[in-house]
Amino acid sequence: MQTNIPQSILDTPQGKEANDILRACVHCGFCTATCPTYQELGDELDGPRGRIYLIKDMLEGGEVTQTTQQHLDTCLTCRACETTCPSGVEFVHLAELGKAMVEKKVKRPFRQRLMRSVLVKVLPNRTLFGTLLGLGRLFRPVLPSPLKNKIPQAKKAARFPQQEHLRKVLLIEGCVQPSMSPEIDVAAAQVLDKLGIQTLRLLQAQCCGAVEHHLNAKEASLNRVRLNIDLWFPYVELGVEAILSTASACALEIKEYGYLLKDDPEYADRAKIISDKAKDIVQVLAEEDLSMFKLDKPKRIAFHAPCTLQHGQQLNGRVESLLMNLGYELTPVKDAHLCCGSSGAYSILQPELSQTLRDNKVKHLTAHQPELIATANIGCLHHIQAGSEIPVLHWVTLLDIERV
Ligand code: SF4
Ligand code: SF4
Questions:
Q1: Using 50, 70 and 90 to split pLDDT, how confident is the model at 178?
Q2: What is the pLDDT of residue 56?
Q3: pTM summary value
Q4: What are the residue boundaries of the structural domains of the chain, listed by start?
Q5: Any idea which of 205-214, 281-290, 294-303 has the lowest mean pLDDT?
Q6: Residue 385: other Cβ atoms inside 10 A
Q7: Domain covering 7-105, topology
């Protein structure tokens, strides 16, 4: 794609990066066919190619309005378009540069600003989020249905194993998962323990930075990433095999640290090392002998591969193979490449579109009568559960450690 971006913008690292990404695009439109928002809204400007044109126009000095912002806001940053693109266009990096520019040029209405600033304050703050979730559970019976559906019932988790092993991984527990579904990380640690791998945990566990990142609070997000690097790097020096997450969105975000801080002379090298160490739980378990977890009799399940797993981390099919090797029967799922509509705070900021995508997803996941739905990310899990009659679980909790 030819561009005509002013030199003053090209001279900035962001301007140069945006120009390089734009020039890789050959306008073929293959990406449009796999974009969930284009499929639902039917407007070229709500698809990747249209959004690329909007960002190009903005960089070339075109008018930027609330309509521009709306078309970029509806993007789920699901990266389905990146998986489809034959030219390797890094759409999400371009979209993030574009969104940051629009944020500076277009003032959002008061309600939107308020909502975004509340989300940026509450979601990454593990203590505050946990307290509010506790209150929500208390008042759940009198809450309106849309809000009630977002508040999961409290679950008791077993204790983390205490056994020491020579092999060690560092587990990043994140912000919302410990309050919403504490059983997931405990199950992962128990499975790792059975395999002779010790799970180290952080006393000062906090958000990976994804929440602020996706809400365009760039500086807050980068500062959190720097803080995490300071906290985690001693574990790298200690020789942990991996920096591990059971939430595919967090694993992806940590894998992006090297990219996010590439222009920071103080942190760039360590950020890259952290990213290289980052692994989704499936990458660790797929390397191990899991025969002790084999089922006695097959169980019929549907698997939802989060976008952050299949498009972001390009790990499509890995969990599915692992589960099938353990004896699970996976039912076919139509349009498995499409987002469920959760996508960070998207379900709160774009509730109607998010719900439509979720309803489509639940319909396809349940079409062949599975006993349960498994997935790999906390956001998808609770979003899909809110629209599903059958249980939705993290796949790692299916590995039955009681039998071992
Ligand atoms: S990231 Fe997802 S929603 Fe956004 S343009 Fe690409 S396919 Fe569409
Ligand atoms: S598929 Fe890739 S090259 Fe083709 S229009 Fe989309 S982003 Fe551009």
A1: confident
A2: 97
A3: 0.94
A4: 7-105, 291-403
A5: 205-214
A6: 20
A7: Fumarate Reductase Iron-sulfur Protein; Chain B, domain 2 (1.10.1060)
Ligand 2 atom 1, closest CA: 85
d(CA 79, CA 399): 29
> CA 131 to CA 125: how far, in whole Å?
10
- 336-350 pLDDT, tens digit each: 999 999 998 999 999
Strand 243-245 to strand 278-280: parallel, antiparallel, or no bridges (unpaired)? parallel
How far is the centre of ligand 1, averaged over its atoms, from the C-alpha of 75 (Å)? 5
Report the alpha-carbon distance of residue 225 to residue 227 in Å, rounded.
5
Instruction: Return the residue whose CA atom lies nearest to atom 5 of ligand 1.
Output: 48
Query: What pLDDT score does 403 carry?
Result: 64
Cα 334 to ligand 1 centre (Å) = 18
End-to-end, the C-alpha distance of the chain in Å comes to 57
Say whether pLDDT at 133 is over 90.
Answer: no
The three-class DSSP label of residue 185 is helix
pLDDT tens digits, residue range 232-250?
A: 999 999 999 999 999 999 9
- The pLDDT, as a whole number, for residue 404 is 63
Four-point Cα dihedral 38, 341, 315, 231, nearest 10: 130
Calpha distance 77→306 (Å, rounded): 12
pLDDT (tens digit, 9 = 90+) per residue, 34-43? 999 999 999 9
User: What class, spelled out in words, does domain 291-403 have in CATH?
Assistant: alpha beta
The alpha carbon dihedral of 176, 116, 351, 308 has a sign of: negative
Mean pLDDT computed over every residue of the chain: 93
Count of residues making up the chain: 404
Assess contact for 70 and 37: CB atoms under 8 A: no
- Residue list, ligand 2 pocket, CB within 6 Å: 25-31, 48-49, 84-85, 87, 89, 91
Closest CA to 375 of 280, 263, 272: 280
